From TrEMBL:
Highest rank taxon of the organism: Bacteria
Residues that span the membrane, as ranges: 12-33, 74-99, 111-134, 146-166, 187-209, 246-267
Keyword Transport: yes
PROSITE patterns documented for this protein: ABC_TM1
Membrane topology: Multi-pass membrane protein
An individual GO BP term: transmembrane transport
Record-given protein name: Sugar transporter membrane protein
CDD domains registered for this protein in UniProt: TM_PBP2
All copies of domain ABC transmembrane type-1, residue ranges: 75-267
Pfam family, one: BPD_transp_1
Family, as annotated: Belongs to the binding-protein-dependent transport system permease family.
Amino acid sequence: MNLVRARVRRPWRLAAEASALLIAVVVAFPLYWMVLSAFKPAGEIESTAPRPWTLEPSLDSFRRVFGQQEFGRYFLNSLLVAGTVVVASALIAFLAATAVTRFRFRFRTTLLIMFLVAQMVPVEALTIPLFFLMRDFGQLNTLGSLILPHIAFSLPFAIWMLRGFVKAVPEALEEAAYIDGASRARFLWQILFPLVFPGLVATSVFSFISTWNDFLFAKSFIISDTSQSTLPMALLVFYKPDDPDWGGVMAASTVMTIPVLVFFVLVQRRLVSGLGGAVKD
């Protein structure tokens, strides 16, 4: 009987696996085309009969990218902005999620709803008010004008996600820690923090990717001081309306993608367990 059921299920399982494979190919194809175009010589890129392979790989596009005078500075600026946003947003979100989950105070529900409302507002609608705010505080043309908005936009999602992880930790564990003589700070950092760490990793991935790939704030708030620009702005060096350097654009995009892939590989295990915990909650 079980053998018959397995045979009936098998076509559906094969169809599901084939669908998953097809979706994976569709999602990965733009990444493959980007890397392929970065290695293609200029003649093949501009050809009217594009081919999904190249027999003459070239590093000329990468030489032009690394030959740019300010490319290294843009790379370090992106690392500094993304790293600061990840650490600061994770720390603030952890403390805020603990506060709204473990403590009872007035307007707690209102505060949580405000987090959701803030998440619903489009970033584009707030860019102009943020521009005037940064101008009044003298933060235009500084990395602070990129760090502060990204921390603010990362927090609502991170707090809501971490709230589920904090809530999943039994209050009996907290009471047992206090009975054993642990202070609130010790429970917070030595017991609760390791338990919700997978959730912190999951939220950090989203914060890192959104900050690393940001073009809107970098274009809006870094007006004249190019020494404060980040990597997405470096792509504009290779894009000219009359004569775009597509090889340079693809090579710069490939270099820009590498830190995201490295970060994702490093936190992959924690990310899977973190997302699993969020779904379970």
